[in-house]
Design a protein that fits this description.
With 353 residues, this protein is an alpha+beta fold. It has two domains: 286 residues, Deoxyribonuclease I, Chain A (4-Layer Sandwich); 40 residues, N-terminal domain of TfIIb (Single Sheet), CATH 2.20.25. Strands 5, 6, 7, 8, 9, 10 and 11 form a seven-stranded mixed β-sheet that branches. The chain has a six-stranded mixed β-sheet with strand order 3-4-2-1-13-12, with helices on one face. A hairpin with a 2-residue loop joins β8 and β9. α5 runs parallel beside α6. The N terminus is likely disordered. Bound molecules: zinc ion. The site of zinc ion has 8 residues, from loops.
Amino acid sequence: MKRTALVALAVAAALPVLAKERPSDFTVTPTAPGAVKVCSWNMEWFPSGRPEPKPAKEEAERIDSAARFLKWQNADIVLLQEMRDAATCSNLVANAALAGFRVNVCSQFRRSTPWTDANQQDAVISRFPTVDAGFMEWNRRKPPASPPRGLTWVVLDVNGELWAFVVVHLKSNRLNAWTDEEKKTEAIVNRMKREESALQLVAWAKENLEGKTYAGRTIKNVFIGGDFNTDPAQKAYKKEKTIPTVTAAGYADTFANVPEAKRQSMPESRHYSAARFDYIFHKGAAELSTPEVAPKQYTSDHCMVSVQVKGDAPPTCPNCGGIMDFRTNPKGGQTLWVCAKWPACRGIRQTDK
Ligand SMILES: [Zn+2]
């Protein structure tokens, strides 16, 4: 008994943040065989939790807590919002819990005004190699619909297929006005900024990602995910065109069949009712399943949302007809399908289909 207590104490000392945050009923749906778990998470001013930095020790604890959370969730590809900078992304993937992860891209948006949007970058981290990546600020030449930040994108080689991801974090709906009249105006301007972002987003994805080829390989799936800061189920956003703009461009809402109460990613707080602000949209032929909102917020005010994705079935072995594994040559970086029975069976296929 004493020994158990000592071990428990040692674990609690090693994981001070987790001990506090990990609930006893924590469960994670396993990822289906052959599937990849795609996640989107607004990290809330990561790693400090506020616009200003915090002592390094506190920030390191939050990074550790977030990394362990992503591991428990079996995350494979994560679209992140409100990251301070690329160095913070590197610190996150350097955590032992995220062994095998890399930073695929991190934006470097300028502040749209001197006092807002500081340290709110978007990023993608994953287990997969980057084929291409970048970010683009929204065209801000049309005030008052002059939206903050922009879009951040990456093309990944996911087990031999090219999948593209776009991350966005649209204008918040927080109001800084005093009078009711001013609040009303500000809410409309915020809505216009999100709608303008959505229009630029779908036009850019169509032009730059859909159907694009790299060395003869075509992008098979395009995902758009992030914090859209709007919830069509709520009266205040009923007339807003942000989400309809994305779906009208042919992007399926991966949470379309999830009941409203089960897809709310912002739990009720002191000033706001529960809302669905975080989305993953998809265009392509992959098989999608298990759209989920993570059960607790953990290190952020937003819950993580995720969906499991199965690409095309891997090819069969030309020699024995069995399944094949996707392999990357660690020296040259070339990719190849190799028979799962290797070396007993030496069947191989080129990945450039
Ligand atoms: Zn074989």
